[in-house]
Amino acid sequence: GVRRRPRRETKGGIEMIVNRRTFIAKKGHMDEAIAMMKRIWAEMDPQRRVRFYRSSLGPFDTIVWEAEYDSLTEYDKAMAAVDPRWMAENLPKWHAVTEAGGANEIWDVV
């Protein structure tokens, strides 16, 4: 079944935030980029609830990743905890399968 978080008392009606990142896969690299993205996030933050999407109708070669955080403070802490050596090792591999561009958005879940 669908796993739902228990409803909490909220401040201003905001239950949590979602970080939504949109990427553009290079032609012929969609499956590789998705597999890499799943591996990367499993290594970086295995307890985080994340979702991955690929375009079916809409912009071509688009991949979306979403992760939930209890607050912007939690998001900031998670981003600050990423090891720069890990990034230096993995970013070139990621850039080899994706195009420049995309988006990085923060959404309030209400």
What features would you highlight for this structure?
110 residues; alpha+beta
Secondary-structure blueprint:
Layout: E1 16-25, H1 30-44, E2 50-54, E3 62-69, H2 72-80, H3 84-97, E4 98-109
Antiparallel strand pairs: 1-3, 1-4, 2-3
What would you say this structure looks like, in words?
The protein is of the alpha+beta class and 110 residues long. Helix content is 35%, strand content 32%. Strands 2-3-1-4 form a four-stranded antiparallel beta sheet. A hairpin with a 7-residue loop joins strand 2 (50-54) and strand 3. The radius of gyration is 15 Å and the shape is globular. The model is unreliable at 1-9 (pLDDT under 50).
Q: What is the number of helices? A: 3
Number of strands: 4
Give the strand line-up of the largest sheet. 2-3-1-4
Q: For this entry, what is the oligomeric state of its chains?
A: single chain
Distance between the termini: 22 Å
* Helix/sheet category: alpha+beta
Name the helix and strand elements from N-terminus to C-terminus, one letter apiece.
Answer: EHEEHHE
As a whole number of angstroms, the C-alpha radius of gyration is: 15 Å
Strand content: 25-35%
